[in-house]
Amino acid sequence: MRKICSLLLSICALAVLAKPTLAQELPSGHMVDHLDVIPGDPSYLTIRGVFDESLFSAIQVETGNTPGKFQVSIPQAFLNNVTLPQKEMAFAEEDGVKRVELQEKISRTGGGNVDFLVDMQIFTSTGDVSLELDREKSDGQQLAFALKPMRKRLGSQDRERARSQISDPGIDDMAASAGRGERQLKPMASQARDAVMLHPVAALLMYQQPLQLNVSVLNASTKDQNAQRLAILLDRQQRQKLEEQVGMRLEVTNISSVREGMVLPKTKIYFRPNFMKAALALSEVIPGEQLVEQMPSSHKGRMGTDVEVYVGENFE
Amino acid sequence: MSKQRQIRTVVGWLLLISVSILPKGILAFPEYTAKLNAIKLAETLDKGLYRDLRISSVFVKNRTNDEHFLQAVLEDGSSQEWKLDQIYEWSLKDQLQLTGNRVLVFPSSESTEFGILDKNEFYRLVLTSQAYVKTYGEHDLLEGKRMTYGIRRFRMLHPGEEEQFATDDQGNRFRYVLELDNGGREIFTYLDAYQLMNNGAFIQEPLEDDIILSQPFLVRELVALPRQVEDELRNIWRFGVEIIFDQNIALTPDLIPYQIVEQNLRDPETGLRKNQFFIQVMIPNAEKIREVPGFRTLEYLQHVEVVTDVEHQQRIFLKAQINPQIFELPPFVEVTSNNSIVVNFFSVTDQSVTRRQQFLESRIPIAGLQSAFFSYPQETEFERYYLQAVEQIRSAQRQSNLHLKIETYLNALDSLHEAALQAQNDQEIAQALLQRDTLLKTLPDLIISNTQRKILESTQMEQDSIQMEETRRQLLSHLDRAADFAPQREQQQKIASLRNILR
What we know:
The structure holds two protein chains of two kinds. Chain A is α/β, with parallel strands linked by helices. Among the domains of chain A are: 30-149, Immunoglobulin-like, CATH 2.60.40; 212-311, Alpha-Beta Plaits. Chain A has helices at 2-25, 156-167, 171-179, 188-197, 200-206, 226-237, 239-246, 276-285, and strands spanning 30-38, 43-50, 60-63, 69-75, 77-79, 88-90, 97-108, 114-124, 129-133, 142-149, 212-219, 249-257, 267-271, 290-294, 307-311. A five-stranded mixed sheet of chain A has the order 5-1-2-10-9, with no helix packed on it. Chain A has a five-stranded antiparallel sheet with strand order 3-4-8-7-6, with no helix packed on it. Chain A has a five-stranded mixed sheet with strand order 12-11-15-13-14. In chain A, a hairpin with a 6-residue loop joins strand 6 (88-90) and strand 7 (97-108). Chain A is elongated. By secondary structure, chain B is of the alpha+beta class. Chain B folds into four domains: 35-113, no CATH class; 120-203, no CATH class; 217-352, Immunoglobulin-like, CATH 2.60.40; 373-502. Helices cover 34% and strands 29% of the residues of chain B. In chain B, the strands form five sheets. A five-stranded antiparallel sheet of chain B has the order 4-3-2-1-5. In chain B, strands 11-10-9-8-12 form a five-stranded antiparallel sheet, with helices on one face. Chain B has a five-stranded mixed sheet with strand order 17-13-14-22-21, with no helix packed on it. In chain B, helix 7 (381-397) runs antiparallel to helix 8, helix 8 packs antiparallel against helix 9 and helix 9 (426-460) packs across helix 11. At the A-B interface, helix 3, helix 4, helix 5, strand 11 and helix 6 of A face helix 1, helix 2, strand 15, helix 6 and helix 7 of B. Strand 14 (290-294) of chain A pairs antiparallel with strand 15 (258-266) of chain B.
């Protein structure tokens, strides 16, 4: 009886001690439940299950030895045998992925620990795609791999051109980067040149008067036809006066609306560098009160527009 | 105009008009979304609260292959179809709560892409941050610019505060207040908090080089800077206003923008209403707390004064009335190391600058660049020489030593000559020759004046013979160049007599 009691006590003690030890030793990891392909641009291979986001960085994606073949290794992952009885899955070829082969690898290491991972062989429909883990679309319930079309390989001339485009910004870009406080990134000679070139008198020396003034009219009011009415005013009634004043042909290149909800109380005129006089002339002919400002760097991507008029609520 | 062109013009106008008259509200929030987004949203909403009911489960359903929506089962056993526009509306009205003190946010009112603000994470971040990087929004005078402010205190909007039930233009309610060291305050919605977190707007440990604005700059005095020549070639003059503050101005000139404001005011003399124009140079993080005397007139500026921006916190304007007809060049701002900002204005009397007459006389288009600037430094050979000339001319204009000034101008002439030889089109060659002619118009008088002065100096003070010989040689060389392009007979005669003296 004493023997039985001591045996029971020992078992209880072992059970009490063993449980936390086991819990401490169990590493966190992933469980793969299901695979799916979502076609689109880009297409996604999604893996549903339970995932530990802190381990995403250990997931490896390697390009296979043949085009269109990828090897994805997910350490500390198990396959859910209930939801994934088959280890090979086929998909519609037009979805971007032809086939996925899954393999669960469990091995015992020194010290009684267990290493486990899931290897996936992914075969895509075409060879000119790359596969990468999309961290933004991945979370605790899903892993998303994006299949992105590979960019065309650049020839040496293209590379040279691309490099020059990256390293040689225009003066507008320089002004913009100065605005972003990035001037210290440029070489000293370039900084000195900026200091000279951004001065209005230097700008005047570099100025080539264009023959055409391109104006964009945008409705920033609650009255639907304000942009159109202003464009007609400029084009039909004020054209000659404006052209004589600014010394350029007037061209209304765009009439449209700004996004919903953006309403300006006063009409605003944005101008590119060296078009201040033209903006002022427009302000003089537009009825009501206007604000005239230099075009922010965020607008400078809209090439071909010298002056932007945001028609405000005050336009009658 | 040909008939075909007329038709094209009419069709173009009709297209533009049809775009412009589209009602702005046509772009409402979508009802359906893509599959992946719907799956993600369903997972996000799972086990959350809809009004006061726990959401037991959420499924994705679809109308077509690309149009997905949600089906939610609530704890009372009811099942509801949820379109995306409904979810969007509920998120704005606090009718959806996620588990773990998180909220759903939609960055755009036209897209179903959503984000999740973890409020606890936000509180921990903002409470441990020392500085806040403010990026100025659309239609602000500082649009797109970033400034870093010290954080004084973070808090929730108190019940009864004016903004508690106010919303932004998208309908998101304001929730939080961030009080800044300079006395300003920022009010955030959940969406703001989400975007600020993602944009790294909160700095926990600032670097040594980071400029963090704390106390506002207090304006003390305005000083008029006298008129002086800026560009003798075009007869451009500079004058200015120095704004003196109580402390060093930790701003770069690009953070001091300007605007021109048109106002319909009553003329004090005639009593009639008319539109008047004011230039306003804006200084951020600044305050005017006492009367600062301005100037009634300063060259062509009238009523020059410092005023407080009544629409924005901690901003002042240097304001002055201008005549838009004579306001040719924008102001140029410099930040000094003497607790001040200098705003330079320019007066241009040379009307060839705008070349209006040229346009009126000839309307034949010249093929070339539409851009106002050359796209330097991705330069053609022409641009390389032309920009070199511009740099030399600007350098000469800042040179106080007349002798060196002439040397630099002559180098600029050489650069312009090279630029003209490299020109690829009519516009380029016209530009190079125009600048050359502008230089040639002024240079003979400068050379004559400098030679006279040097001759007088040499008679008044003793110089060593080698130095004198070198100066004499240079002056003769200048006179030889001047003789080539001096247009007036009187100038030619002077040059000849000066050459005789030097020989």
